[in-house]
Amino acid sequence: MDQYWQDPGAVGLDWLAQFLMVMGLGAFCTPEEPSIATELMMGAEACLMQTPFMFRPTFAGLKAMCLVVVAKQVCNPTCWFIDSCWSLLGLLVRMSFIFGLPQDGHEISSQPERKARRKLWLTIIYLDIKMSMPTGMPPLTRPDELVNLRETADIDEDDPLQIVLAESLPVVLSALVLINSSSNNQVPYPEVLRYNSQIRILMSNAQRRLSNHLQRVTVDIYLRRCLTVLHRPYALHLEGPTKFPESYWSSLECSLTVLMHYRELWSYDFELRYDLVGRAFTMDFFPAALQASVHVLRKDAPLAGSAGIGCEIPPRQIILDTLQSCIDIWGGEQEKSVCWRTAHSVLSAIMGLLPDAPAPATKGIPERPHMNSHEPMPQVNSHHRP
Length: 386
What we know:
Elements: H1 2-6, H2 13-28, H3 34-49, H4 59-75, H5 81-99, H6 111-135, H7 149-155, H8 160-179, H9 189-209, H10 213-235, H11 240-243, H12 245-267, H13 274-279, H14 282-297, H15 316-333, H16 338-352
Helix pairs in contact: 2-3, 2-4, 4-5, 4-6, 5-6, 6-8, 7-8, 8-9, 8-10, 9-10, 10-12, 12-14, 12-15, 14-15, 14-16, 15-16
């Protein structure tokens, strides 16, 4: 920064784009002047557009693009961010291969640089998987392109989050490639159980290794969402509780846990702004609420007896209270966009079908300070992907 202020020409525009994205995300967390965040991010875009980032990418340019994807997930109170993020991620993965980021980097003598390259590649793959789950689209990367992830875990012993991601991404990616493949064939149930066992081991290892609370929560959401996507066809089967009990209980347990994380992120110390972190997982919270509601709506739904397969399902009233508290959170956000308002209406209508559902909060959850989106208000899209 000092070098830039002394001589603006001493640093590249790609570095300046990355710097402005960092400043923009930081400014977004301060409600006093949210418009500054938009201006900073648009400045980052202008800087990036003046570089040959599409055919001669740089490391700083890749990091700036990565932050753009993160910003679109956090700063836009719409469900349409997944469409723009999907396109951006396709460009980002293409740029990464042009730059040579997926290679093992043995020719680079600097160990900090090798670590930084592997860390960025892990982040890009994680974002790819995170977008693949709500869109239902095949991941942009393939398991055979992750041959160097094992080495990442060996090198970054000082970063437990990178170790956890390096271990889990190949397994999750393989599962999503099967689930979201273009063929109409359903994943065989034995394969579902095999992946279920592997992912649950990864969940246990992550909780043991990660000491940072926020990292534990976000990694747990990511792995549990993969489990719900994996189990969904069998969990929602008419005879799911009897024919596919592992899928049925895993689906309900993971959906409820994701909702509890949602409530926790919102109710945590406001100064930490964990609710903004939760924004990036909106497309995980909403389907979790829908899936939990489907389970509770079934008249023949057994809500006990899950201990035999290692799940812990709370009593029905606790499930209903959890759902209602999450709907109240949506209620505080519903004026930010038509997407939030529609989601709140849908979830409220579902809760209204339950005769023993708790009454909604009279005043609702206090609304967070309003943050301006740097994208226009979306229109309702009748063919939007679920």
